[in-house]
Amino acid sequence: MIIIADSGSTKTDWCFGCTKADNRTVRTEGINPFHQTSDEISRLIASSLVPHIGPASRVTDIYFYGAGCTPEKCGIVKEALSVHFPQADIHVESDLLGAARALCGTKAGIACILGTGSNSCTYDGEKITDHIPPLGYILGDEGSGAALGRRLAADCLKRQLPDDLCQSFLKEYQLTTALVQEKVYRQPLPNRFLAGLTPFLYAHRHRPEIHALLTECFSDFFRRNVMSYRAYPNLPVHFTGSIAFYFEEEVKEAATSLGISVGRTLKSPMEGLKEYHWQD
Asked: Is 0.70 topped by the overall pTM?
């Protein structure tokens, strides 16, 4: 039996089984070694995952892809997993490598994540070969939910969108200028607040002004990330993440306007990771 994990700070999806057709998925709380100790992660695994697995001796390999899993932090997760699965061969990698393997498999390509944040890399079919730093929602994260929400809030408050849209937005989220600034500059996790505004964009995406906002934001992602790779334009460009999935039409339109062809789009990496690790 193998275990595959796709983990973020808020949730972790665990898929375990023997083949691509014979497996189960369990969702637990998120795991991020930047914010949790090995003991904390171990307790989460004990309470939320182990009861579903059965005898630990059945597990031969674990492939864990997670946010915060830098080379310096991977050992924290590996130590927590080894407590419960001492006989397993444990591999802990970044969520970006997980996205690349899910999207590209064993072929070269450019793998992109558009979710609350954004990220991208070039991949040679085995490893990441180049990476432009996303820089977070203040300096970067172009095309992400946080960047889209930031643009929407700012455009409404600065009267860059039609009045009916602005009023509808403020009413739906019960926001004022002061409250937006409070949530962005003073309260914790402003990126999640901003990303939480994207359902409004999705609901109104056929309005010309919102459509233009979306395609401009996605064009920024392509210009400042994808088109900056030395390997571009010789590699296919693939996407995963909720923003890429729900706004696939606008992402592809922005790409086409720049002469870029978008390949595969997955809502989450797990589907592709099953294919990668179970090739039977």
From this structure: yes
